[in-house]
Structure formats: C-alpha cells, structure tokens
Specification:
By secondary structure, this protein is of the alpha+beta class. It has helices at about 1-10, 15-25, 30-35, 45-55, 145-155, 185-190, 200-205, 210-215, 230-240, 330-340; strands spanning about 40-45, 60-65, 70-75, 80, 90, 95-100, 105-115, 120-130, 135-145, 225, 245-250, 255-260, 265-270, 270-275, 280-285, 290-295, 305-310, 315-320. The strands form 2 sheets. It has a 9-stranded antiparallel sheet. Strands 4-5-6-12-11-18-17-16-10 form a 9-stranded antiparallel sheet, sandwiched between helices.
Length: about 350
C-alpha cells in the first residue's frame, strides 16, 4: 500500500486523506500508517489516559467529522470525564464539548505532517480511529499548544513495538424494517412521553426503527420535512439576530458540539461554511438527502431541532437553540424554525 499511496499522492497532492482512502479502496488509518504524508507514531490504545493527558496541552483544535460535515473547535480539553457507563467519555469545556463512545475506538496515532504554518514546518496532531480505520476524532496543536507536553504525551504512550494495523470490513447496511411491522401508535405514544432528548436513541432501539423511518412515521405530529436549503436560512437568521445556537456533528465514535453565536457564513462550491474565530463548520450541501424539523418533549417543554440526513439515512448535523437543563427552549429559536419553508413532496 505504501508504494500505491505514494504514487497516488504524487499525482494528487491536494486530495485529503479521507478522500484518498475512498478512491484507493482502503481506510484512512491504513494510509496514515504508511508514513507517506508524514511521520506517524502508533500509540497504545489507552484512550482514557490519553484524553486526560490532553488537558496539559493547553489550546488546541478539536476536529470531528462525518462524510458530509466537518466540525472544528479551538479550546482546552478540560474537564475530561471518563469511566462512565457503556465506556462513555465526555469533555465539558466552555469551548470543547464532546461526547465520546470509547468502546468504538481502536487505534491512536501521533502525526507530524509538513505544514508551512507550523513554527518548525510541521503540524502535529493526535488522531483516533475506529475498527474500520475511519477517523473518529483528531486533535491538532496550535500556536497556543504546549509542545513539550505534546512530546511528553507521545513518549509516554508510544507503542513499544510496531504493531500490525488490523481493520475490520464494514458490515453491509441492513434495510429498515417495513413500516407495516412497526407499531406506529406505540412509537408515537412513547415519543409523546419523552422526558429528555437523550432518551430518543433508546426509543428507536425499543421499536427497531431507524431515525429517518421514525421521522417519517411521526410526520405531521413530531416531524416536518423542510428543503435542504433550510440550513442556510437557519444559519443566516441566527447570525443576523445574534441568537446563540448549538451545532452537533458526529460519527460512530464522537459527537462534537458548538454552543454560541455564528457570524461569518461563506459558500464555496458545494460547501457551506461557518468561518468564525474558534469555530469552523464545513457542510457539503450536495450530500443532504433529507431535512427535518423534529420535536422532542422533555420535562422542560418541547425541544425542537433542525436535522439533516444523507442518502444512507445517516445524520449529518443537528441544530438546536442554546439551552440548559431546567430552562425552556428559547422562543426566538422556535420562531426561526417556524419561518422555514416546508418541503413540497412530489
């Protein structure tokens, strides 16, 4: 793979490694391990200890993405919480806010790649991958980072020997159960009794439905379709009114959250971007297949979100109005969603 990737990189110097892996029929982790793009040091899979060690790095940039959306936040990894049930972890900082599904993490790497913006010509990062070799989370050093602490972290966790990188093939996606097999009345009844938005995932599991299938079954009661371009209007109105919002982007191993206002909105080809100090978002609008306004009851009243999905039914991004437990949802946020055009179905 090293020679194949080196030849590909020579012909495609600007192609990002995730796209290169797709074109070459392999995984990002396997391409990273070749060392073609820069030095890559395999780390021991002591993910919880590594996360706690990140607190010593100071200011860094956290990056979490899926195939259609990239979420970048600068800040400090503190406080870090691990040892939670179901191998969950959390980072609950003012700027870096993460939900970590550590049971799905498989490998970790310290990476140094050539970069003109680096003080010594290198960009240093810590990168984490799942069993399929897909990146679940990355941490990049910035001018605010303590590089001595970074080097100490790498030395502490470097794997003792050159371990082979074993990745698992992705399972074939399973088709959703036919709607006729779903007790829609029971689903909607339990939906109406939700007390917390975090209970929604368990609701789907109990009824054996996918997210988009549940939204379709709840259409007209808890879900409304909107056109894909509703995301632009939502960001634009939030920026104009300076309304703080919450932007969730995730994958199998991590969900990253921005809470606060958005300001600079830029379209570049198919990509719709938020380019603010401390927060960047890059959304591939061409990947949006479905957009929904979704309502979930809670003990604090209804909570509404704009949710985008790709053709496979995977969630791309969720937007909420800023809120804290114990407080009702902002009326200004509901007004923004209320003003969105509803989708016209063929």
């Amino acid at each position: 793979m090293t020679e194949t990737y080196a030849a590909f990189r020579a012909e495609n110097p600007k192609t990002r490694i995730r796209a290169a892996a797709r074109e070459l029929g392999t995984s990002e982790a396997e391409l990273l391990a070749t060392g073609v793009d820069g030095d890559a040091t395999r780390l021991q899979p002591d993910f919880e200890d590594i996360l706690h060690a990140l607190e010593g790095l100071g200011g860094v940039m956290a990056l979490t993405r899926n195939d259609a959306c990239v979420h970048e936040k600068t800040g400090v990894y503190e406080p870090v919480h691990t040892g939670l049930s179901h191998r969950m972890g959390q980072v609950l900082g003012k700027d870096i806010d993460l939900r970590l599904f550590l049971g799905r993490w498989r490998s970790a790497w310290a990476v140094a790649t050539p970069w003109k913006g680096g003080a010594d010509g290198l960009r240093r990062s810590l990168q984490f991958f799942d069993a399929h070799g897909d990146a679940v989370h990355k941490v990049f050093c910035t001018s605010e980072s303590d590089l001595d602490a970074y080097h100490a972290l790498v030395e502490r966790f470097a794997a003792a020997d050159r371990q082979p990188l074993d990745t698992e093939p992705r399972a074939e996606p399973q088709p959703a159960r036919p709607d006729a097999e779903i007790d829609a009345d029971a689903l909607l009844s339990e939906w109406a009794d939700l007390q917390d938005t975090h209970d929604f995932f368990q609701l789907l599991g109990r009824h054996g439905v996918t997210r988009t299938q549940a939204l379709r079954l709840a259409e007209g009661r808890f879900a409304e379709r909107v056109p894909a371009e509703a995301i632009r209007q939502t960001f634009k109105t939030a920026a104009e009114t300076e309304l703080p919002i919450m932007v969730f982007v995730g994958n199998r191993g991590c969900v990253q959250i921005h809470t606060g206002p958005v300001e600079k909105l830029v379209r570049q080809g198919p990509w719709y971007n938020v380019l603010d100090p401390g927060f960047n978002l890059h959304l591939d609008e061409a990947a949006i297949d479905q957009a929904w306004i979704v309502t979930k009851p809670t003990e604090d009243g209804d909570v509404t979100a704009l949710e985008l999905y790709d053709e496979a039914g995977d969630q791309i991004v969720q937007l909420f109005g800023e809120r804290k437990p114990g407080r009702p949802e902002r009326t200004e946020w509901r007004a923004i969603l209320g003003d969105l055009p509803r989708a016209v179905l063929a």
